[in-house]
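Running this now, will post back.
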Amino acid sequence: MTASQSDLILREARASLAHQRAGGRRRSIGVRSAELKRQHVAKKAARMAMAVGAVLVAAMALGLVIDGIGLLGLLLTILAVIGVLGFFATYPQLKVPDLASINRGDVRTMVGRTQLWLEAQAPALPAPAVRLVDQIGGQLDGLGLQLEGIDQAEPAVAQVRSLVGEHLPGMVESWRRIPPHLRQEERGGRNADQQLADGLAKISGEIDEITRQLAAGDIDALAIRGRYLDYRYGNALEGADAAPAQLPPLDPARPVETK
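Update: finished.
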């Protein structure tokens, strides 16, 4: 075994150990998705506490009725407590939002759902796209903070929600619909993986520019940019429902040509 191979094995072992210490789950790509996960864990803990309390109350009530539950009853109570703890620690699992529900609710919720959805897709994405998804996750936190201080009735806000809550996940979904063995076939000089990475990079740039405009308080400029985004990304989901055998060439990336 060569030294480089040994180093590679050690790096993979360290990465695996870190992954297991983190609970075997991919880290959150943003503050909002991490917040939704914490809320989910808190609800689980509350259910576990109530379930354990119900078991103990039932055991005490039974003991009062039959004048003590005895050693066997104590063992059964302990087993029941362990059972309910195991069940409520496992279920319900955090549900990954579907495309139809991502853009619902307030801005904070929309950003968190988009981040959760992107996290769920990341393991299947090519490496360049994963790096961009991580980058976009952080950008969405900043964008969400800026949008919270703006009247949600502003047309520009609706345009941004469309970009983040519809076109961004729609682009990834279009890539997922392409059969894996066809993703390396080139069309127009680029394959599907490259088109996805290019499209995500351009959306990342748009999110950064919008966040800067919001931070500067330039709502009028944002409204103009919102109409531009609608024109630029308006066909982001085009071809997403096409049959996989037709190999849709990731039309979401095609409308986002460089300026």
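The chain has two domains: 31-90, 107-246. More later if anyone needs it.
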